[in-house]
Design goal:
The chain is α+β, with helices and mostly antiparallel strands and 79 residues long. A 4-stranded antiparallel sheet has the order 1-2-3-4, with helices on one face.
C-alpha cells in the first residue's frame, strides 16, 4: 500500500484462490482510506475471461475474502 499523493491510497495483493489455476492481482484504490474500489487482473499471463469474471463475482459477493485481501494490502502500508 502506498499513498500517491496526500489523499489517494493504492495497494496490491497477489493471490491464488483455492481450486483456481490462475494467480490474480487485485489493486485497491481509495481517495480517503475508507471507501475502496478495486481492479482485478491476472498476474502471470492472460487467462480465461470467464474465470476472471467468476473471481470478480466472488469478490463482489464474499465480503470475508474481499476484506482479507484488502487487509493484506493495508498491512504493507508503513504506519
Amino acid at each position: 500500500m502506498r499513498r500517491e499523493d496526500e489523499k489517494n491510497f493504492v495497494g496490491n495483493t497477489v493471490f491464488r484462490a483455492e481450486g483456481e489455476k490462475s494467480v490474480y492481482e487485485i489493486t485497491f484504490m481509495s481517495k480517503n482510506g475508507k471507501d475502496w474500489d478495486y481492479s482485478l487482473h491476472f498476474t502471470e499471463q492472460s487467462g480465461d475471461e470467464e474465470e476472471l469474471l467468476r473471481m470478480d463475482e466472488l469478490l463482489e459477493n464474499d465480503d470475508d475474502m474481499y476484506n482479507q485481501l484488502l487487509d493484506a494490502a493495508l498491512e504493507a502500508y508503513p504506519a
